[in-house]
Design a protein that fits this description.
The complex is a heterodimer of chains A (262) and B (333). Chain A is an alpha/beta fold and 262 residues long. Chain A has nine helices and ten strands. Chain A has a domain of 169 residues: P-loop containing nucleotide triphosphate hydrolases (Rossmann fold), CATH 3.40.50.300. Chain B has 333 residues and is an all-alpha fold. Chain B has one domain: ABC transporter involved in vitamin B12 uptake, BtuC, CATH 1.10.3470.10. The chains are: A alpha/beta (262), B mainly alpha (333).
């Protein structure tokens, strides 16, 4: 049985359809890449999966159970959502913001305990934020802020992490770091759905790709199957250069991280 | 850990200041009150004039200042966190102007003189109705901006109605009565007012109890908060009702007291690391302290008659508000 299952998810804003009956499934340990041109409905689909908005029609199940029947907090323990744009209202410290990620695991009267603290420390280390933990969020660079927000989602230890363009503000080195962190999250048995604009990152890191175009699924499957000449032309109006042959292969990422601490 | 210690230290200092101020507030007034003698009289066989002043006037006045100030400070922190806006005040959702309108209606139609609870009751009804109107106008899932705009509109309308009643007031005496009430004062507080204030205040506080967590989550934005388990429509309903009850009760008893709810959370926010849940209790304590101090101030000012405490809080609050706007502008440039 799949972990997360969406059937015929549709949503309109006024007369304008945004999603037109999209199906999706996610297996445990899988990293699914949602790709497609701007306005294809990727973010909307992710927000529906996160429970932030309700679809007009269609059904969403988590472990075979209807997602909307789950209590808010129980759902939040299992699915973490990392939106594309995030502004922090108050100039809180990095550590306090990351700490908030443990909230779904706490009762209203509980405060962060020993176990929570260990998880927070580990994630701060993983995301390379040790030097920033006492800094104010607003004083960080865009890339550092993106890592703080990812850390906030990771400390929830969710079964499913939904990340909307988590690397768009990052330099190539930190892009690789973030993608590696997402992969690590999968390797510990959890699943990730990530919206990406960088097709080579998507091909390289995701187990499976789902290509959305004008609110519907245009193609779905392995990178080779999805990123072929026809789909790229139909969805993005682009063509691969001759050097890449007729499909973007998972191995075609031109760089790798040299020194982690540089 | 360090943050927790700092938080405790802040609350201890505020608590200490509140106790000292409350004790001072009992002794200060048009008639200096020897506290020990008043206490001896109170527990003695024959209550004298000092014990009467203490139990009938000073204690109720001090407690009302403490409770009303605490409600204003607390609800200011709640509204600023809920609306994610540092310029939000507890009155923004209509509670203050609604309470004023309700109270003024009872004064205008002479109902206020019929029985002791009429005026504050009118205020409470006004506060609840105005808040409900804002809530309905903004819609169940209305965004923050819609809520703020709806609040601004309802406030303007309620204050226009107050002006209309002032305009149509049957006698200069009625105008004076309404105008003086609007200034906000603690000078005519007796035990009755305390009993009127208490239920709405406590109920409001109770509704805010344990709501710090979702307010923290709102720091990350509405969508993230809701993805992290915050039930935002429910939170909004609950906190609106809480603010209507607590602020409505306070304003109904004291008249309009401005700026405490806006200023106090701002002063204390940096001291609690800007975290909304950690701001709530210190903000309530700060509000209580500030209103007691302002009320003591008006009793000490060497002027004829007594300057109304609402005037003093606004006199201090308005320049601070201005500073706040300039400070924010400088930061965003």
């Amino acid at each position: 049985m799949s972990l997360l299952n969406g059937k015929a998810l549709s949503l309109s804003r006024g007369q304008r359809p945004i999603l037109k009956g999209v199906d999706m499934t996610l297996q445990p340990g899988e990293m699914l890449g949602l790709i497609g041109p701007n306005g294809a409905g990727k973010s909307t689909l992710l927000r529906i999966l996160a429970g932030v908005i309700e679809p007009d029609t269609g059904e969403l199940t988590l472990d075979g159970q209807r997602a909307e029947s789950l209590p808010h907090q129980a759902r939040a323990r299992r699915i973490a959502y990392l939106p594309q744009l995030s502004e922090i209202t108050w100039p809180m410290s990095v550590e306090r913001i990351i700490e908030l990620g443990r909230t779904p695991h706490l009762e209203p009267w509980q405060s962060v305990g020993e176990t929570d603290r260990e998880i927070i420390d580990r994630v701060i280390q993983q995301t390379d934020l040790l030097a920033f933990r006492d800094r104010t969020f607003n004083t960080l660079s865009g890339g550092e802020q993106a890592r703080v927000l990812l850390a906030r989602a990771l400390v929830t230890e969710p079964d499913i992490l939904l990340a909307d363009e988590p690397v768009s503000a990052l330099d190539p080195a930190h892009q690789l770091d973030v993608m590696n962190l997402l992969r690590q999250h999968c390797e510990s048995g959890h699943s990730v759905i990530v919206v990406l604009h960088d097709l080579s990152l998507a091909a390289h890191y995701c187990h499976r790709l789902q290509l959305l175009y004008q609110g519907a699924t245009l193609a779905e499957g392995s990178a080779e199957a999805v990123l072929n000449e026809k789909n790229l032309a139909d969805a993005y109006d682009i063509a691969l250069t001759k050097a890449n042959g007729n499909a973007l292969k998972p191995t075609s990422l031109p760089w790798r991280r040299l020194h982690k601490d540089d | 850990m360090i943050a927790a210690i700092r938080q405790h230290r802040l609350m201890l200092s505020l608590g200490g200041a509140i106790v000292i101020t409350a004790l001072l507030s009992l002794t200060i007034g048009s008639q200096p009150l020897p506290l020990m003698q008043a206490l001896q009289e109170s527990f003695g066989e024959k209550p004298g004039v000092y014990s009467l002043i203490l139990t009938e006037l000073r204690i109720p006045r001090t407690l009302v200042a403490l409770l009303a100030g605490a409600s204003l400070g607390l609800c200011g922190a709640v509204m600023q966190s809920l609306l994610r806006n540092p310029l939000a005040s507890p009155g923004l959702v209509g509670s203050a102007s609604g309470a004023a309108l309700g109270a003024v209606i009872t004064l205008y139609f002479g109902v206020a003189g019929l029985f002791a609870f009429a005026l504050p009751l009118g205020g409470m009804v006004g506060a609840l109705l105005a808040t409900l109107t804002v809530y309905l106008l903004a819609g169940r899932d209305g965004g923050t901006l819609t809520l703020i705009l709806a609040g601004v509109a309802v406030n303007a309308f309620a204050l226009a109605l107050v002006s209309l009643l002032l305009n149509l007031a049957p006698s200069p005496y009625a105008v004076q009565e309404i105008a003086l009430w609007m200034l906000g004062s603690l000078s005519n507080i007796s035990r009755n007012e305390l009993w009127i204030l208490l239920p709405g205040t406590l109920l409001g506080w109770l509704l805010i109890w344990h709501q710090g967590r979702p307010l923290d989550l709102l720091t990350l934005g509405e969508e993230t908060a809701s993805s992290m388990g915050a039930d935002l429509p429910n939170l909004r309903r609950r906190l609106f009702l809480a603010v209507a009850l607590a602020v409505g009760s306070a304003i109904s008893v004291t008249g309009a007291i401005g700026f405490i709810g806006l200023v106090v959370p701002h002063l204390l926010r940096p001291l609690v690391g800007y975290q909304p849940s950690r701001l709530l209790i210190p903000s309530a304590m700060g509000g209580a302290l500030l209103l007691m101090l302002a009320d003591m101030g008006v009793r000490l000012l060497p002027v004829q008659g007594e300057i109304k405490v609402g005037v003093v809080t606004s006199l201090i609050g308005a320049p601070f508000f201005l500073w706040l706007i300039l400070h924010h502008r400088r930061r965003s440039v």
